[in-house]
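Reading a protein record of the kind used here takes only a little practice. Think of the row as the fold of the chain written in a discrete alphabet. With that in mind, consider the following protein and its fold in token form:
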Amino acid sequence: MFQPLPDDIARALVSTGDRLGAFAGRVSWCDEIGSTNDMALRLAAEGAGEGRVVVAGAQRSGRGRHGRAWASPPGAGVYASVLLRPESRALPLLTLASGIAVAEGIQAASGLDAAVKWPNDICVTAPAGGLRKLAGILTEAAVSRDEAPHAVVGFGINVGLAAYPAEVAARATSIELELGRPIDRGLVLAECLAALWRRYQDLQHGRVGPVLDAWRQRAQSTLGRRVEWDGADGVRSGVAVAVDDNGALLVRSASGESRVISGEVRWL
């Protein structure tokens, strides 16, 4: 089912081992897989403990929110899912904390200062002012056979140059494309795992303030943009202005301020 870790990933995991927490020594590799999230959910249902990590060189059926396909071509990115067993108080902010961690990991490994976009995107600003997606988060929570709740956090990061489908290429970018130089894929993965473990510990111990502060700081270039979403009375629109202490997006429109907690938000 699993293959030996590639040398670049094995070296990077060893170099960051003292910062990986429960992830240390628990990373499994597949050259190609249907979905890393599906595999991590399967391992969780079979009773795997917290800290299992599934990483793949390519995904045949990677997915994002709302069932959208996530392009995962071979050798172009980091595709990983981690198994966590969080306290209930940690769940509401887990996706935001994971987004911050991935942005921090990318910066630590490459120097690229990425932004976050509610609720689960890591992006950079294009020269024309638009946003180009660099990475995404998919969090799926469930209850395993022993009734212990668990969450799988999947992240896909565009590292190298790749031929993406036309509908993706227009709004996607990669670390190497932004920097104009090669990047150590293994180090990107290892630094993201180290940052994810650190931010997860913040949530587990009730330190939500630093997580929210970090998210708001990295969202400065994405907030202030127009968005639309499907409300109870139809499609609504406004300007995304903030995220509240529970992780909801606050949107200002002519009719006042709305609090968006779920569903699809389209950034215009």
In short: The chain is about 30% helix and 30% strand. The radius of gyration is 18 Å. The chain has a mean pLDDT of 90.
